[in-house]
Amino acid sequence: MNLNEITPDKVVDARSMGCPGPLLEAKKAIGSVSVGQILEIQSGDPGSREDIPAWCKKTGHEYLGFVEHDGYDSLFVKRTK
Fold first, then answer.
1. With 13 labelled, which of 40, 46, 60, 65 sits at a CA distance of 20 to 30 A?
2. Is the alpha carbon torsion for 47, 55, 72, 3 positive or negative?
3. Catalytic annotation present for 56
4. 8-25 confidence digits (pLDDT tens)
5. Catalytic residue among 6, 9, 10, 19
6. What global pTM score does this model have?
């Protein structure tokens, strides 16, 4: 899957937040997308590269990966339940 070609169903802009802000925003937002849909979390916190995949593993959602932009990352999560 080419992450640059993903059209997310919802985008959460957490670029201005430090840890654990992006993770908390992801937790809040995952309920607003349906099973099978994709959530994009925009984060300026480099720790999100570890936090979001670990949260997905713990909760059972599918972590699709991240795309690095100038000053932030877009992390993609597919809701599985």
1. 60
2. positive
3. no
4. 999 999 999 988 999 999
5. 19
6. 0.95
